[in-house]
Write a structure and sequence with these properties.
The protein is of the alpha/beta class. It is 25% helix and 28% strand. The chain has 5 helices and 15 strands.
């Protein structure tokens, strides 16, 4: 799937970290690629492992991005992403990618989005309380994300994340549009129509789904 000469998007999260490690091993074996990381964590892992990094000033298109997801809708391959805190950069890289391959374990594959995880929404810190109120008017129960030490979580871009609990989402595309129009919202964790392939690990082996 990953070949010599490719520009590869490097996802963020525990599953993506395994994928990056696999690429590191292949690079050590002679694979020649450059990577665009979706977070400082992924950049550090890739750099220390010997993957050459680049950016959009030098490569405006990405051949393939490998990333994880928090939920994958069976059939449409629509996603909820962002519990790892890197949703903005992940979506920028995904939007520039010819292919977005999602790697996940079986519990992440669901009939529809929203039933098991909230939708992360990245917001500007200034006036976040008013942004949260507007999101609540759309049916969300927004919760300001905090780090394990109790401090308010900040993204690599310095923004905040409101984890918005909706329950089962009947129309993810419509909701994504509505959330994006709220003043103060930077980006949402709904990735609609972006994934091209999902590789799902099950006890019986790897299942592949293509859109």
């Amino acid at each position: 799937m990953v070949e010599d000469g490719m520009v590869v998007g490097l996802g963020t999260g525990s599953t993506a970290a395994f994928a990056i490690q696999g690429l590191i091993e292949r690079v050590r074996g002679g694979l020649k690629i450059v990577g665009i990381p979706t977070s400082e964590r992924s950049a550090k892992q890739a750099r220390e492992g010997g993957i050459e990094l680049t950016d959009f000033a030098h490569h405006t298109k990405v051949d393939l991005t490998i990333d994880g997801a928090d939920e994958i809708a069976r059939g449409s391959l629509d996603l909820i992403k962002g519990l790892g805190g890197a949703l903005l950069r992940e979506k920028i890289v995904a939007a520039a990618s010819a292919r977005l391959v999602i790697v996940a374990d079986e519990p992440k594959l669901v009939p529809g989005l929203g039933a098991t995880v909230p939708v992360p929404v990245e917001v500007v810190g200034f006036g976040w309380e008013t942004t949260a109120s507007r999101l609540a008017q759309l049916g969300a129960r927004p919760v300001l994300r905090k780090s394990p030490d109790g401090a308010v979580f900040r993204t690599d871009g310095g923004n905040l994340i409101l984890d918005c609990h909706f329950g089962a989402i009947s129309d993810p595309a419509k909701l994504e549009q509505e959330l994006s129009m709220v003043v103060g919202v930077v980006e949402t964790g709904l990735f609609i129509g972006m994934a091209t392939t999902a590789l799902v690990a099950t006890p019986g082996g790897i299942l592949r789904f293509d859109r």
